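Example record

One chain of 120 residues, shown exactly as stored in the release files.
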Amino acid sequence: TRSGCPRIDKLAELQRGLKRRARTMVPESRGQDRWDSSTKIKGSRRRRIKGDANAPPEPPPSGYVTFVGQMTCKIRHDRPNERHSQVKVIGEISSLWKSGLSKAERERYDQFATEAQTEY
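Predicted structure tokens for this chain:
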């Protein structure tokens, strides 16, 4: 059906073309194998499957990354009623890492990362 407006008609034509293309696609090529569950369940979140099973494992995180992960969890747990802003939290954590952490505490995280790296 034509609406008389060229922009609306063009959009409708593009939409019809996309629907036609989606109908002709084989389900395997749609990428269903990339998700952990093939059907979407209401209220749940589908997660992507990791890439290649034969790929080498990722290297272990550095001491700073380990510290950030632990502190992020702690801050979220300590502030359940606050809206979580990852940017603000990372800013707080990085300033804590730079100036608020003693040398001994920082060395503990770095030692943990060094041990994980040797195991890797």
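Notes: The radius of gyration is 24 Å.
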